[in-house]
Design a protein that fits this description.
The protein has helices at 5-9, 33-44, 66-85, 96-102, 105-119; strands spanning 14-19, 24-29, 49-53, 56-61. The protein is α+β, with helices and mostly antiparallel strands and 136 residues long. Helix 2 packs antiparallel against helix 3 and helix 3 (66-85) packs across helix 4 (96-102).
Length: 136
Amino acid sequence: MTLKKSDILQGQKCKKVPVEALDGEVWIRRLTDPEVADIQAVMASDQSKMTIKGDKVIEEETEIDARTAMKNSRKSRHAAIAYSLTNEKSGEEWEPEEVAEGLSPDAIDELAHKIAEFSGFLGMRSFRGWKREDTE
């Protein structure tokens, strides 16, 4: 079957998911590639500094601060949730700060897992305890 542009863009569809931690349902949408890139940048920020010479990567600093890594992981979840909850079905715009300040850690973890699974974003596997069913 040959796909048309409209078929491909249907990947932006939303779906309603139950969220036990919120005792209700919310609309989420799949993350786009630029959004995934933003989330990955947040996850990697302040982790390791590198310089590139020609085709070789030379690491200048390889220490990873566990606090920074955990903080970046939380920030990336907040961004993913804000991106996903901002959709045509909800009609609302979310900011990462609203997610961080307004949702419980349990709700954040649960939503992040559901968004990762729906989006097929395996980079979010690092979210505590999440494994995509078909990769176990």
